Amino acid sequence: MSTITADEAVVAPVETGFWTRSRKVGVGLAAAGILAAIVFGALATSQTARFTLSDDAEGAALAIDGTVGAILFGLIAAAAGAAMFTDKYFTWLLGVGIVCFVLSFLCWQISDAPAGQNFMPLVNIVRGTFLLAVPLIFGALAGVLCERSGVVNVAIEGQLLMGAFAGALVGTLAASAWVGLIAAALGGAFVSLLLAIFTIRYLVDQVVMGIVLNLLALGLTGFLYERLMQTDQAKYNQPPHFGSWEIPLLKDIPVLGPALFRSNLFLYLALILVLVIHIGLFRTRWGLRTRSVGEHPTAADTLGVRVLGLRYRNVLLAGVVAGIGGASYTLLLYSFTKNMIGGKGFIALAALIFGRWSPTGALLAALFFGFADQLGVYLGAINSIIPSQFLAMLPYLATILAVAGLVGRVRAPAADGKPYIKG
Fold first, then answer.
1. 406, 95 in Cβ contact below 8 A?
2. Which entry of 72, 115, 240, 309 is 20 to 30 Å from 165 by CA?
3. For 23, how many CA atoms within 13 A lie in the half-sphere containing its CB?
């Protein structure tokens, strides 16, 4: 099977007729832009909205009158939507439209904030976006490894949760973050092993098995948390945390430097894994075999590829990756708590689909969801008039918007979710 054939799984079908996907989305974006200009422009104040290039109110900043900014950016978003009727530059126009719509919204929110809080520190926003996206990146990469091999991985939530629990428990007992990291990887691999055995060996429905494993991880970690961690936090649930690592020279780049290159092990490892898995999938023999098994396992078997063995290895590797992602909760910021993943595994699954089963696409999608999460945190900090319950919903609303409204018609690898029985 050629590389071109294997990649066709992520290309949306070409639409014919007047109402192409680009024009449908363009109408929606234009309407949203006009609505933003009218509503956000009316609600904004004449107070200057400042976007500071630091982590506080000091230093250089991009400033604009709140009302003017809300109307201007709303109209630009509407113009981008109208330009999509040309059926050209879809991705760029969509990106410009979404960014301008968000800027219009922010001009309203920042200008309407209490005195002294009329600014958005871009360094903090970017730093928070990457931090909140880290577990999503690991989870989405775990999904890429599984689904490119033909195995649906709905168990990302359970893999993240088991990794977080194992990292906290073993890291505390060993008094070592590194030992905790290894334990987290094994915890995620344990969930993946069960997924592989039941779906590949015993042909259990992959989606159903994934849901069962999520419930198993939730119940098992919850039980052990109550019996061990809750009774003696100091002994079982105070893991050491990884500190920040700075990269010389790069850390001094404006905005991105302090946010990206004065960060933690997990972010660096996530970015490295995106690069490694992308190269591996599209530039190596392992990647060609993986994509072939995910597209047409019978043909791959005919050419000598051990289909079941490759699926086993990739599913286990996915568990290791997701387990490390789970450790980013307990070995970086927090102690373990029951159900601390809180649905992030399903958002990671959405990032996988939004990113069209590609490592780089999954990275960008995870950053999109991470920004939505960080935006909710920021708006809460400036006492936004939007109720806190709605702010907490932002990452989930962004997930629905992305998967239902923006992702378009995409096709998963052809053999995804289909058990392979060797003839």
1. no
2. 309
3. 9
* Cα angle 420, 286, 147; round to 5: 45
Q: What are the residues whose beta carbons fall under 8 Å from the beta carbon of 293, sequence distance 6 or more?
A: 149, 150, 300, 305, 307, 310, 311, 415
Q: How far apart are CA 273 and CA 262, in angstroms?
A: 19
| Residue ranges, CATH 1.10.3470, the chain | 126-406
Going residue by residue through the chain, which has 423 residues, state the pLDDT in tens, using 9 for 90 and above.
333 333 433 444 445 577 888 888 899 999 999 999 999 999 999 999 999 988 888 878 899 999 999 999 999 999 999 999 988 888 889 889 999 999 999 999 999 988 888 899 999 999 999 999 999 999 999 999 999 999 999 999 999 999 999 999 999 999 999 999 999 999 999 999 999 999 999 999 999 999 999 999 999 999 999 999 999 999 999 999 998 888 888 888 888 888 888 889 999 999 999 999 999 999 999 999 999 999 999 999 998 999 999 999 999 999 999 999 999 999 998 899 999 998 999 999 999 998 889 999 999 999 999 999 999 999 999 988 888 888 888 888 887 877 776 666 678 899 888 888 876
Tell the residue number behind the tokens 């592989």, with chain if given. Answer: 196
Length of the chain: 423
Q: How far apart are CA 387 and CA 82, in angstroms?
A: 32
334: which DSSP letter?
Answer: -
Structure pTM? 0.90
Beta-sheet strands, E only, within 150-238: none
Backbone angles phi, psi at 384, to 5 degrees: -60, 150
Given the candidates 1.10.3470, 1.10.3720, 3.40.1710, 1.10.8, the CATH classification of the domain at 126-406 is 1.10.3470
The answer to whether residues 403 and 281 touch, using CB atoms and an 8 Å cutoff, is no
- Neighbouring CB atoms inside 10 A of 305's CB total 18
Alpha carbon 236 to its chain centroid, in Å, reads 30
Q: Residues with Cβ < 8 Å from 314, sequence gap 6 or more?
A: 145, 146, 148, 149, 151, 290
Asked whether 162 and 322 are in contact (CB, 8 A), the reply is: no
- Between CA 13 and CA 20 the distance in angstroms is 11
Write out the DSSP string of 258-294: HHHSEEEHHHHHHHHHHHHHHHHHHHSHHHHHHHHHH
Task: List for the chain the helix, strand, coil content (%; round to 5).
Answer: 70, 5, 25
